[in-house]
Design brief:
- This protein has about 200 residues and is mainly alpha-helical.
- The protein is built from 11 helices and no strands.
- The chain has one domain (about 1-140).
- The chain is flat.
- The two termini are about 30 Å apart.
């Protein structure tokens, strides 16, 4: 989002749109797209262990989540950057700040809410993701969605109710926090601050 703000070239816009495609693709398709090249590498160099690195560790799952949900975070951050005037960047640069310093000292304090909202949205989506989690999860590691799915698949619906309810309740907390954050953003200024 920051590189798009600094220099919105055609290449960067295209890259942002390409990255955003992951959200439109089902998790199972992303997993197959990940496992095909990994399988080819594993067959080519069996001693590398790249297959085990992706399929039985947390890294493969994080990779799939990154491909799938980076669009959610990117859109939130782009919306946050759209609210910042470019004059802030120009002023900081005139005072001698470099790109990293502008991002850290000027943008970050102003984008904390957008970052928080992006993190909450990604958390809710990751928590609900089932296909990628089922295929790539490490052994003996189950999320609420996986447990609820396994119990429902075994027709143990009474037992599946608790993880399903927990999933809803845990997903409800970020939604409440987001709605409060949005309410604070829309609150009108007091008369004394509005006149300044």
């Amino acid at each position: 989002a920051y590189s798009l703000r600094r220099a919105p070239t055609v290449l960067r816009r295209g890259a942002a749109q390409m990255v955003s495609l992951g959200y439109a693709v089902p998790g199972a398709v992303i997993v197959v797209g990940m496992l095909l090249p990994v399988g080819w590498l594993q067959a080519r160099w069996p001693e590398s262990g790249v297959g085990a690195l992706v399929t039985v560790t947390i890294w493969g799952l994080v990779w799939a989540y990154l491909v799938r949900f980076v669009a959610v975070a990117l859109q939130s951050m782009q919306a946050g950057y759209a609210r910042l005037p470019r004059s802030l960047d120009e002023s900081a640069r005139m005072l001698g700040a470099g790109g990293v310093e502008v991002a850290a000292r000027v943008h970050w304090p102003l984008l904390r809410r957008a970052s928080f909202a992006a993190a909450l949205l990604v958390f809710v989506d990751v928590m609900k993701e089932l296909p990628a989690t089922i295929v790539l999860r490490p052994f003996n590691t189950d999320t609420l969605a996986v447990v609820a799915n396994q119990l429902a698949r075994d027709e143990r619906l009474g037992e599946a109710a608790l993880p399903s309810l927990a999933l809803v309740l845990v997903g409800l907390v970020p939604v409440i926090l987001l709605s409060r954050t949005l309410r604070v953003d829309r609150r009108p200024l007091p008369p004394a601050e509005a006149q300044v």
